[in-house]
Amino acid sequence: MEACMDALTLDRPQVRHQAPNQPSGAASMSEAVAALGANKALGAPSFDDPIKVDLAALNQMLHFCLDNGADDLLLMAGAPWAVIWSDKVCRVGTRALYVEELEQLLVEMTGNANAHIDIGRAEDLDFTYALRVQRGRNVRFRCNATGCLGTNGQRGIEIVARPTGKVPPTMLELDLPAYIRDAAMPKAGIVLICGPTGSGKTTLLDAIMRGQATREEGQHILTYYAPVENDLNIIPDCTGLISQCEIGKAGYGANLKSFAAATRNSLRRHPMVIAYGEARDPETIEGAVLSAMTGHATYTTTHTSNVHMAIPRMADAFSGADRSRVANGLIDQSRLIVHQRLVARPNGIGRSPVRSALVLTQDIRTELLRTNIDHLPIAMFEAVKAHGIDLLKDAEAQFSAGKIHERELYAIESEMKAGVF
Asked: Which of 165, 293, 364, 390 is the residue whose CA sits 20 to 30 A from 93?
């Protein structure tokens, strides 16, 4: 627990950069930190370790996560309950959890008496759980339950709960540069947000949705997430209509069974804006291209470590001639690609965003369409360097402003020197 409360230390003898004496941009930084995670040291729980983890105990743990800005609650058979805080696993509980109590908890969380049976059938479960924090207000948690190896080779289970449900921040509160803000709401075309797991992609996407929802011209916005995280209908000053559909398994709160069904569904509902929570499979990727081709502002996310690999990795979900066809479709329809990662702040409390981005103008799209698909990563890398926001330059700017730890800048420098293709 102490290790999680300590500020990160630099385990490197050579100091290559001089940190500023005073950070700049404090107001916008505090807003961004509040939106993206922890902004204070991790405290000790105000309650004793429960004899059994039931809903009452779970709710206490979830309140602890909210109070401390934790990213995730981890409940795994054979280990004490823990949280992910400032990108570190911190064990908070003092006793190992039993698989039987977690299976019963899963039944109670989902309201489905067969939930633990589904886990035993080698199926993982995505669902949401609502925590009442005050009268008339709930906070939603995005949850996943997965079977795993338990103690002494017996069956096990892990439940991960991530807090969501905040009022989405504005793009200004996330300190997005004008280069990104100005291109984030096209009339039609794809806006692609990429980054590793837990990098704030959904928060960034929801901030853009807030921008769309508060435009003077009211927008009909359809979102398809697995599962739904934040309630976008609580956005202040909303001028349009937002319909949120959850993709998932029947019996666990889902509205539609697949992203393929979402694409068909969206085109029957006269939307102006369509958001797919993640381009995780060929159906979703082709759905995003089709949505953009039919004249809609289309948003989605993907797990890539930079801008220049986003389209090539999505195209790699296809083979043969389909690979080139989909790559060309993505290039032709994409208007903005943003990569974001959250890295350690200088004091080790919370994380701060570092970004790269490329606005795909008509000239850039034309040049990329002339490029062989196998050379596309290099061509996009050069386009980012020449026209976009470069990750290393942004990291240097964030370090100079006192917003990120020196070791994070060093890691990005090393990554850029190694070349990531």
From this structure: 165
CATH (domain of 395):
3.40.50.300
Do 184 and 109 fall within a single domain? no
Angle subtended at Cα 116 by Cα 114 and Cα 119, rounded to the nearest 5 degrees: 110
Hunting for tokens 């039944």 — which residue is that?
Answer: 107
The residues, any chain, with a CB within 8 Å of residue 173's CB and separated by 6 or more, are 28, 31, 32, 35, 207
Show the domain range for 149.
Answer: 41-163
- Do 233 and 309 lie in a common domain? yes
Name which of 340, 310, 339 is nearest 327 in CA terms.
310
Q: Are 164 and 140 in contact (CB under 8 A)?
A: yes
For the chain, the domain total comes to: 2
Alpha-carbon gap, residue 91 to 2, rounded angstroms: 10
Give the rounded distance of the alpha carbon of 258 from its chain centre: 20
411 beta partners: none
Distance from C-alpha of 355 to C-alpha of 305, rounded to nearest angstrom: 11
In the predicted model, is pLDDT for residue 24 greater than 70?
Answer: no
pLDDT digits (tens, 9 = 90+) for 267-319: 899 999 999 988 988 989 999 999 999 999 999 999 999 999 999 999 999 99
